[in-house]
Amino acid sequence: MNEQPEFIAHLDTDGAICLRKAFDAGWVQLAREGIERNIADPSPFFRNLGENGGGFLSDMWSRRYIPEFERFCMESPVARLAAHALQSDRVRLAQDTWFAKRPGSSERTPWHHDTVISGPFCSVWVALDPTPRAATLEFIRGSHAWGKALMPKSFFDESAKRNAVDQFYADFHGDKSRADAHEFGEIPDIEANRDAYDIIGWDMEPGDCVLFNARTIHGAPGNHLKRTIRRFVTRWVTDESTVAMHGQEMIDALVGAGLEIDLQVGGPVRGKLFPEIRVGDD
Fold first, then answer.
1. At the top level of its lineage, which domain of life is listed (predicted)?
2. pTM of the model as a whole
3. Fewer CB within 10 A of the terminal residue: the chain, N end or C end?
4. β-pairing, 16-19 with 218-220?
């Protein structure tokens, strides 16, 4: 793209940046309304990740029937931000998802990075509620450049105990039976040794977003506030992106949900579920 925003250098160095007031109040309200509609009309991917029926809710690929999400993905500034991050004038929407952590939901989003796509891959997390630093998404600065796909302990030890959140990430981040486990490293126990890592995160207001390389290690604490914290998330790729060699489980999940897709391991990300958006100069 001809236009190179100043944030590109910081994104390349840190792997994650916070952009203030990237989305106005109208877009924030639209995403909130979409989440409420989606809760009332969940897809096969809807999850309550809270223990004992608690309040950590999520759904994926709902854009296809939630009009608020469709408008947000296609008309808001999000595609342009992704295009700048991926330095391409054409991007594809790989996934739309959202997370709502209700008051008292103590489940932590585990430290992980997203490895099911090979090649260019970024995420845009939009805050829909005031989110203090103690409750926000966190990153290990520069970890996108570590050069190795890392998996949680449960990837290597099938007997490891998994809660609902761990199982969710296992379902969509690859199965050891699909790939050579020696290709992967293990996510370190970051929580047990936080001072050893350069952890970054931000206080966020509605409309702020975090834009990050999907391979930057990230995680989030539970919600110990007295109100719900909601985030709308989109993930983006380019024509050079392909399904990773351990991505068959994701393909199986999409097919199992009845979605018409034409994906294969090692192949490009294409099809109606992954629309291309051209972002030209204004």
1. Bacteria
2. 0.90
3. C
4. unpaired
